[in-house]
Each structure stands twice: as structure tokens, then as C-alpha cells.
From TrEMBL:
Segment of the intact protein contained: 124 to 404 of 440
Chain sites annotated for binding ATP: 49
GO molecular function, one term: protein serine/threonine kinase activity
Residue ranges of domain Protein kinase in the record: 20-281
Species whose genome carries this gene: Clitoria ternatea
Source organism phylogeny: Eukaryota, Viridiplantae, Streptophyta, Embryophyta, Tracheophyta
Protein's UniProt name: Protein kinase domain-containing protein
Homology family: Belongs to the protein kinase superfamily.
């Protein structure tokens, strides 16, 4: 597809999601829900619905469509098209039948119990997707929101990176006045503390995902909305003086620092530990 984005008929999305009925919701993100729908010839797809009343939402929509339209890789979600209805925009992707890694690892049913072999393969797929963004895209793409809920699994449990709303190209103007964003628990300490954003920020977040795959649990518990708000308003990139931190964020920073160390341990473990000799990624 490289560059051009097919326009999908909105009526078809409306009809095949049963007018966005909640039974067709696959997931929820910052700017809206993702629904299961189908296109002509009964091709099952996933459709992200974005209410684009705010400039931020509009920017995220355009950003994601622009970037994904230029990218084709087996470990990155395929963009199939987009659509609109007034202020509402839709992005149509390939359907990933096994949902997100987060749901597989931490979801309510804990049904799938990923085997060690599957976890190794998911780690490898994720690394391949990231490597493609960092090493083979020109200019390089920084995803900026690497986390288990943005790693999707197809019917064969192949992993693909998704949600490029926050992604930026390395060296772009927008990188210079970037607002702190991403997901707490996955933010690299140098980014959280000094606003230093590089492709290594994604690598740090990938380390946290490795920990999730290894430990089977989230390394950092969810924060209360008030805590998140306090961090977001405080932690602008220009603020580098740790002594100015409100006391509420201190434990979070400490957790994140600890994770840096754990990440190194985890990375070494993933590379070295082979619990069953037959498993070779
Ligand atoms: N959730 C978000 N995007 C998805 C997709 N493409 N397939 C399945 N579930 C999703």
C-alpha cells in the first residue's frame, strides 16, 4: 500500500459493527474504542473510532494514518483503510484474533496461559517490529507508547505492534517540544526525569514488556487518576530538578528506577535462560 490509504465506506462500518454495539468492542484506548467489523467479501477487520473534536485527537489520527501508510512489516499492524463521519474518524486495521498481549497475560479469564515458547516468540516478534522502526525506517520511528496492550496477537499468536498515535519520526520538529506522554510504568527514567526522548525510550518500555512476559504480572500497579494527573502536570520535559518533585510521585520514580535494573536482569534472562532445551527462538 505504501503511502495511499483506501477510503472505506462509513455505512459499512456502521452496519457491520451493529451501530457500534458494545458487544463488538475489542478494546478501548485513549481516544476511543476499537470495534470488530467486516468489509466486502466478509473480511473481518478491527476499526478504531476516534472522536476528533479536539486538536490532539485529530493530530493523533493523522499521525497514525500517515505513519502506518508507509510501513509494511510482519510485526507491525497493517492499516487497511480509513473513513469518516462528520468529526468522527475511523482507522481500519487487520483483525488480530487473539487480542492484546496485556489481555492474554493479565486479562480477566487468564484463559490462554501462554507457554514459555510462545512468550519467547512474542518477545522476538516485538523486538523485530521495534528493530524495523528504529533501524530500517528513514527517518527512524519512535513508537513512544510501547506496552503490552499495544502488542496484538493474530490467530497464530504472531505479535504485531499497534497504536501509532503518539509515534514520531526521529529528528522531527515535534520531538523538540514534546509533551510528556506514554504510559506510566513504561517510561524510561531519563525521559521521565529529563525529557530526553530517543529510540532507547522504546527499548526501555520493551524491557518492561519482557518483565511482564517473564513474571506474568504487571511490574507497576495502576496509579489513581489523581496521581497520574499530578505527574502529568509536573513532569514536563524541561523540569530536570528532582528536588522539585511533589512527594506523591517519588515512589513512582523509585519504582521506575528499580525497573531499569530489573530490565537488564530480564533481558539477560530472556537471552540466556532456556528452561526447555528444545526451545530456540
Ligand atoms: N484491539 C485494538 N486493535 C485491535 C485489532 N487490530 N485487532 C483486535 N483487537 C484490537
Amino acid at each position: 500500500m505504501k503511502g495511499s490509504v483506501p477510503i472505506v465506506d462509513y455505512k459499512q462500518i456502521e452496519k457491520t459493527t451493529n451501530n457500534f454495539h458494545e458487544s463488538n468492542i475489542l478494546g478501548e484506548g485513549g481516544f476511543g474504542c476499537v470495534y470488530k467489523a467486516h468489509l466486502d467479501h466478509n473480511l473481518d477487520v478491527a476499526v478504531k473510532k476516534l472522536q476528533c473534536e479536539t486538536q490532539n485527537a485529530q493530530r493523533e489520527f493523522e499521525n497514525e494514518v500517515n505513519l502506518l501508510s508507509k510501513i509494511q512489516h510482519p510485526n507491525i499492524i497493517s492499516l487497511l483503510g480509513c473513513s469518516s463521519d462528520g468529526d468522527t474518524r475511523f482507522i481500519v486495521y487487520e483483525l488480530m484474533h487473539n487480542g492484546s498481549l496485556e489481555t492474554q497475560l493479565h486479562g480477566p479469564s487468564h484463559g490462554s496461559a501462554l507457554t514459555w515458547h510462545m512468550r519467547m516468540k512474542i518477545a522476538l516478534d516485538t523486538a523485530r517490529g521495534l528493530e524495523y522502526l528504529h533501524e530500517h525506517c528513514h527517518p527512524a520511528v519512535i513508537h513512544r507508547d510501547m506496552k503490552s496492550s499495544n502488542i496484538l496477537l493474530d490467530s497464530n499468536f504472531n505479535a504485531k505492534l499497534s497504536d501509532f498515535g503518539l509515534a514520531i519520526t526521529d529528528g522531527s520538529q515535534s520531538k523538540k517540544n514534546i509533551k510528556l506522554s506514554g504510559t506510566l510504568g513504561y517510561l524510561a527514567p531519563e525521559y521521565l526525569l529529563d525529557g530526553k526522548l530517543t529510540d532507547k525510550s522504546d527499548v526501555y518500555a520493551f524491557g518492561v514488556v519482557l518483565l511482564e512476559l517473564l513474571l506474568g504480572r504487571k511490574p507497576v500497579e495502576k496509579l489513581a487518576p489523581a496521581q497520574c494527573q499530578s505527574i502529568v502536570t509536573w513532569a514536563m520535559p524541561q523540569l530536570t530538578d528532582r528536588s522539585k518533585l511533589p512527594s506523591i510521585v517519588d515512589p513512582v520514580i523509585k519504582n521506575t528506577m528499580d525497573l531499569k535494573h530489573l530490565y537488564q536482569v530480564a533481558a539477560v534472562a530472556v537471552l540466556c535462560v532456556q528452561p526447555e532445551p528444545s526451545y530456540r527462538p
